[in-house]
């Protein structure tokens, strides 16, 4: 095993995550203020229900554009906040969008129904059949209702990822329909040239961000680097490492702890992308991922042929040394969650303690590498084995292994149950929140 010395950035005083999060909040608040000003300039009108409906529609359009920004996979945001948190925010903004658009449809229809002395449903049919853009808006709302329904936890758990993702793609159809509705009947498009320019600019930035982050950057990077499988190395009966090489990999902005969406271009798997972390720090010559068999897709990895073309989207994730706040570090891994932790160990140069939680020694992936690397770097390695209960990383046990845990940055990666338990333990031991770093794979369409 070869390690490459790197100049490690010092712990940052200003947290990149806080800067990015504050910037997003400020961006949303500033745009909400602009939308309100343009709404008031256009003249709210005398009917309260119609006024509330129009304002809800404008805020709904703003939230829809903001949602697109959250899942655009722009590197600056992703590397500071992380795809998992951006996806979570996208989900909650989606529920806010659902309620604002329902309010828009309800208040507008009730307002016009009252003015015409008609029933709600008669007025809705009248608007849909006589007013340009309204039918498109109804279709867009119906799509958003379906997407919101399948994104609810009880439904999401029952759907295959591919099914959920396919349904989620209809969000883009809803966006186009909603925007054409806004252009057709939105008062800000007809009464103010400044507001018209603002909305065109807003939608241009939102859709342009998605196109840049989801299409342009991945295609450009893959054309530039020409990735191919260079070696397939079985690590155990159910774990395999894939080595990937390409051109100018020293120019690929990947960091230890990050992951890619890997697509191996074979005739039966080219359409399937899976998230795997780098299991070794990038050295400018090759990338390595290590995967545990969890289904047909991962089982097929050990049968990949050397030379297979690879399309990789990324790098993604904020689980990197960019977010360190202390000089010394504790790394906690469970199971195959060791892969990004192993890469981080290679990338850290101050005193490191690594705790690897597995059921048995046979489950410890890359253990020989970890021992060699820990010895070379002067790190402490603790392999903790045994059943899940009793908790061998409970507060007392963890404090015994790492007495100065509250003075360290802590990076945690493992199965959800273990990760949640360790996070509770860290909080019980008084480890400040800014020193705790974890990330979950969460993909959004």
Automatic annotation (TrEMBL):
Protein name: Oxidoreductase
GO CC annotation: membrane
Domain of life: Bacteria
Coiled-coil spans in chain: none
Transmembrane feature ranges: 24-43, 49-71, 92-113, 133-155, 167-185, 197-217
Pfam family, one: Ferric_reduct
Stored InterPro entries: FAD-bd_8 (IPR013112), FAD-bd_FR_type (IPR017927), Fe3_Rdtase_TM_dom (IPR013130), FNR_nucleotide-bd (IPR039261), MRET (IPR050415), OxRdtase_FAD/NAD-bd (IPR001433), Riboflavin_synthase-like_b-brl (IPR017938)
Residue span, FAD-binding FR-type domain: 222-322
Location within or outside the cell: Membrane
CC cofactor: FAD
């Amino acid at each position: 095993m070869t390690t490459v010395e790197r100049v490690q950035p010092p712990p940052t005083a200003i947290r990149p995550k806080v800067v990015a999060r504050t910037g997003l909040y400020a961006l949303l608040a500033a745009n909400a203020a602009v939308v309100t000003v343009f709404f008031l300039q256009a003249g709210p009108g005398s009917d309260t229900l119609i006024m509330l409906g129009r304002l809800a529609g404008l805020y709904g359009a703003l939230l829809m554009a903001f949602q697109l920004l959250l899942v655009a996979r722009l590197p600056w945001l992703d590397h500071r906040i992380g795809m998992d948190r951006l996806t979570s925010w996208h989900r909650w903004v989606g529920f806010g969008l659902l309620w604002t658009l329902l309010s828009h449809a309800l208040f507008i229809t009730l307002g016009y129904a009252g003015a015409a002395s008609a029933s709600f449903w008669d007025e809705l049919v009248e608007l849909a059949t006589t007013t340009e853009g309204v039918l498109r808006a109804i279709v867009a709302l119906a799509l958003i209702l379906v997407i919101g329904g399948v994104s609810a936890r009880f439904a999401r758990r029952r759907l295959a990822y591919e099914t959920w993702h396919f349904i989620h793609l209809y969000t883009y159809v809803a966006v186009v329909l909603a925007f054409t509705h806004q252009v057709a009947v939105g008062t800000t498009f007809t009464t103010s040239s400044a507001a018209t320019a603002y909305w065109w600019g807003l939608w241009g930035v939102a859709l342009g961000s998605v196109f840049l982050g989801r299409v342009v950057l991945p295609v450009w990077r893959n054309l530039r680097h020409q990735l191919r499988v260079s070696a397939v190395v079985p690590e155990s009966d159910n774990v395999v490492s894939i080595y990937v090489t390409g051109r100018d990999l020293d120019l690929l902005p990947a960091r230890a702890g990050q992951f890619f969406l890997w697509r191996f271009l074979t005739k039966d798997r080219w359409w399937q992308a899976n998230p795997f972390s780098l299991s070794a720090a990038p050295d400018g010559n090759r990338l390595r991922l290590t995967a545990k068999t969890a289904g047909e897709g991962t089982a097929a990895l050990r049968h990949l042929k050397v030379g297979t073309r690879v399309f990789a989207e990324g790098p993604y994730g904020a689980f990197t040394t960019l977010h360190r706040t202390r000089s010394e570090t504790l790394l906690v891994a469970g199971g195959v969650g060791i892969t990004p932790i192993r890469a981080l160990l290679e990338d850290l140069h101050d005193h490191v303690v690594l705790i690897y939680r597995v059921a048995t020694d046979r489950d410890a992936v890359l253990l020989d590498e970890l021992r060699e690397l820990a010895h070379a770097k002067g790190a402490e390695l603790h392999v903790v084995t045994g059943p899940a209960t009793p908790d061998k990383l409970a507060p007392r046990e963890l404090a015994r292994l790492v007495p100065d845990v509250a003075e360290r940055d802590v990076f945690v990666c493992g199965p959800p149950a273990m990760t949640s338990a360790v996070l509770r333990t860290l909080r019980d031991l008084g480890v400040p929140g800014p020193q705790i770093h974890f990330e979950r794979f969460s993909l959004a369409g």
